[in-house]
Design the sequence.
């Protein structure tokens, strides 16, 4: 037995879609697989939690101990993106103002839930320990250092860090050429 589920085991989860070369750790936790679509060439490591509506593109890595809480609005992770270890992505969150109660054991009528889709576009990289809050769009090519709080949309092709994050500099677009080479090579295999 390997440490990743095989294709037949993944099919039995009941995902909305699963591509080829998908490696999901047997130690990952999946809740609501029928609301999840997973592209090809995807790896999800040990102790990850995936819950709610989630769409994962192609050539994606989600490192150990990361958590994606899609709720009903969902999380989109587009092609060639990377989520480092211990990253938390929230498309759903409780209201912390004190105007309502919080936690999953409280009936909904006593809570105020914030739900907004999170979009992680192509070639985004998110550093270890970062947190993404509901409603954020991480635009194409943006990168985020370790321990970054992402509470707003990012600029395309930017390098960002901090709590909350600030843009540090522009990011190279050379990876677009590398993407073309990779896809050309794969097409000829």
Sequence:
């Amino acid at each position: 037995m390997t440490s990743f589920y095989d294709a037949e085991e993944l099919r039995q989860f009941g995902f909305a879609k699963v591509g080829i070369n998908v490696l999901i750790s047997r130690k990952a936790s999946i809740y609501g697989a029928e609301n999840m679509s997973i592209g090809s060439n995807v790896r999800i490591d040990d102790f990850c939690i995936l819950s709610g509506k989630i769409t994962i593109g192609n050539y994606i890595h989600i490192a150990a101990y990361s958590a994606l809480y899609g709720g009903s609005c969902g999380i989109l992770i587009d092609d060639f993106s990377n989520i480092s270890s211990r990253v938390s992505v929230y498309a759903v969150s409780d209201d912390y103002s004190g105007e309502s109660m919080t936690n999953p054991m409280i009936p909904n009528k006593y809570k105020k839930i914030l739900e907004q889709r999170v979009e992680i576009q192509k070639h985004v990289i998110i550093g270890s320990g970062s947190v993404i809050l509901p409603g954020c769009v991480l635009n194409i090519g943006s990168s985020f250092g370790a321990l970054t709080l992402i509470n707003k949309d990012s600029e395309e092709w930017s390098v960002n860090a901090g709590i909350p994050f600030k843009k540090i500099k522009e990011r190279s677009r050379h990876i677009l050429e590398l993407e073309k080479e990779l896809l050309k090579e794969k097409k000829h295999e």
